[in-house]
User: Fold Class I SAM-dependent methyltransferase from Actinoplanes oblitus.
Amino acid sequence: MIQLIGGEMPEYAEQLPPAGGPLLRYLAGLLPTGGRVLLAGPHEPELVAALAPGREVTCLLRSHPDAVAQDLRDVPGVRILCGTLPKLTDIDRYDAVLALDGADRLCSPDGPQLDWLDAIRALKRALRPGGTLLLTVANELGVHRLTEPGIRAAARTGDAWRPLGEFGAAPGRADRLAAALDAEDLPVTGLAAAWPLPHHPTLLITPETLGHGPIDALGALATASVASAYERTPVLSDPRRLAGAAVRRGLGAELAPAWLAVAHRAPAAAPAVTLPPVLHAGPGTITELVGTPVDGWSRRTAGGHDDRPLPPGRVLEELLLTAALRHELPALRRLLTGWMVALPTAAAGNVLVDGDRYALLDPDAPPCPDALTRFARTLTTGGYSHPWQAITELPRLTAILAGAAGLADLPDIAGDQPLPDGLREREEQFLALRRRLADAEARAGFFEHELEKRDAELGRARMQIAAFSGSLGYRAVKAGLALARTAGNRLRRQT
Assistant:
């Protein structure tokens, strides 16, 4: 049954995706059973269904069609409130409040418009003392915004009647977010940068780990998470490169798409949800990276104790691109040969190199039989300078890389690889085509010049032939040659 509390939107259904995914479901499942939970804002039905067993769940939705859709699912233990956050009168009622979609979709045009801080205060009033708040805050200067073709301050969806964009009141850094929550008597016990999208993160990294953790591995994980989220998506530039560079250069927390905070209403009790240094949702598995810079880092299944050491070293793809940019052919041959001998079906971004040792960063990643071809495509479409600039066809460049790696047979050619559709990469391809066209025009001009020279020489030769053939001496010589030829023939017959 749906309870209308005021400010509901009767004809509007949310156009943007709700918050969810396996990582958020896992975190929600860590909440103690037997308590009352408020889900503020749109969340995926799978998250609601995973949270409901053993708990009293209340969903606060401003969209009446979305509330009806949730009610039709008939999940036991789920109560639905349709309206806006300013109309919520449940004071000191909930043991946990989850706003994993953020605070932007909690108001409607038919009621008060709360800014970010007022929305946090309203959520706090719904919490019992010691209750847990799980909050996602989008970063307006995150990678997803820096590569977005559109403008956030322009109304493009039905919910953008107040398109503030970068002029909103939400904190713009992770440390400012923690300070703002602490100032509201909501001490933060866990904080993590979320990749690759605010509403559907697959990678959480704490700011401390971004500053002192295994930077190369973290950069590769951020790149991989962004790659899967932006397949065939129009962007200004490839977000994979920006994400990896941000983490490696020490700006991972500042350029992360969002931050996820775990806070408690004072007086705070023992944390109900503890964030590990790194939490990663892979294909069917959620894993953690734990450790310290001194003791080393290990990888294990989330919530388990099956620790496996994280291999040391740098990411192979970065080493290959660095060697290509510097035109270091011996280093390229050594890396390509070691890769194809040790891990020929592993993507270059999933291989760590430590001296002569090659190891998998994510053992759960699916095999990649066309890994060499994918790296060749990265060279051709990424705008990288490499030693074979004249080779623009993918099969030919793959064959060259295979020869440099010592392979006797040509590897598989990649099919339709789902990559981000970046304007920057298109510009690089356009410039490459212009260079090829300019080279073809130069060749055509050279051959035209040579043809003109040959035509001029041929014309002069014809003029000389015509001049000689019309003179008296030429005719006399020609007649004498004919008489001599006839006499020679008679003499041969007589002999």
